[in-house]
Amino acid sequence: MKFYTMLFCAVVLFLTPRSFGQKKGSFSSSGNASKLTYDLSASFGTYNERSYNEITLGLNWFLADWFNWRNSAFSRFGTNIDTVNGLDSAARFQGSLETDGGGFGIHGFIGPGVRLATQNYNAAFGEAGLIFKLGGIKIGGGIKSLYYFSDRKDSLGLTLPKNDNQVFIILSGSGSL
Questions:
Q1: How far apart are the first and last CA of the chain?
Q2: What is the number of other CB atoms lying within 10 angstroms of the CB of residue 56?
Q3: Residue 35 pairs with which residues in a beta bridge?
Q4: What is the pLDDT of residue 107?
Q5: Degrees (nearest 5) of the Cα angle 13, 19, 20?
């Protein structure tokens, strides 16, 4: 876990110039300002009839109103499930519709990514989702479809499938960096 924590910190420190942390951007098509936000999400899935949960802390770098580069640290855990930790990096292509005041809106995204993880859980993935904005709170969900590069076994020695589909929920506040 130390390696992934250090990798996450390096991404934040070296790829984020100081001026971006002080800038305010917008999702509107008229604003081209870059900005950083964070979010917390949770997902769930099953392997060999055993459930797991995954918690994710994401850092979103909005490079344009239609493009977000998202890096997120995650931890997967469950009963009789090997704990897996790592980093997801994804290119999200997106679009938003908001009211004039920006108090209400809907945001959609889709894109590819890569997962770097412990326990041979490295994978390529595609994800898509919808987020609803209600004032300063954003609530949404989506699906992530993973394809693992290596063969894996669970804690009982049973072979795990090469593909995995996760359903996730997103809760994001109005904070930005």
A1: 25
A2: 19
A3: 62
A4: 93
A5: 70
What pLDDT is stored for residue 1 in this prediction? 44
Q: Name residues of the chain where pLDDT drops below 50.
A: 1-30
Say which amino acid occupies 76: R
Sign of the Cα pseudo-torsion (23, 35, 6, 139, in order):
positive
pTM: 0.75
Residue 38 amino acid letter: Y
DSSP per-residue codes, 100-156 = TTSSEEEEEEEEEEEEEESTT--EEEEEEEEEEEETTEEEEEEEEEEEESS--B-TT
Q: Copy the structure tokens of residue 166.
A: 């996760």
Tally Cβ neighbours within 10 Å of residue 175: 10
Structure tokens at 135: 């004032």
Q: Return the half-sphere exposure (C-beta side, CA atoms, 13 A cut-off) of residue 166.
A: 20
Residues 107 and 139: beta-carbon distance below 8 Å: no
Tell me what pLDDT residue 39 has.
81
Number of Cβ within a 10 Å radius of residue 123: 23
